[in-house]
Amino acid sequence: MKTFSIEGGERSPSVLIDGSRRVVEISGNSTLKETNWFYSNVLKWILAFNMGGRKTEVINIRLKQINDSSAKWILLILKKLANLIPATDFEINWYLISNNRRVIAGGRILQSQSDFRVNLVSE
Fold it and tell me: In this structure, what CATH number is given to the domain that contains residue 33?
């Protein structure tokens, strides 16, 4: 299977969608001003990779910084993915790699507002 990746920048996260490993990884900083363009494209790629027989099993989110708009987009992407894959068939690991209150709050909000399993992992 193929992979799709975006190299991260100072304000934009790295994204890796690995179809053979069935993993989606979002890492770095997500403090973009134009989140709609960035995350709508990420959503398209994630949905495209999950149209066949092999589905994403693990989503790893390792963000050092996040803004509100990025957090909303990540929740939207995960909800769309949950429409394609039963919530019991994939897991989300939200890594708490910084002492950033927004990152911690984002993981907790995701945990409370979703029907799927979200693991908050301290690093």
Answer: 3.30.750.24
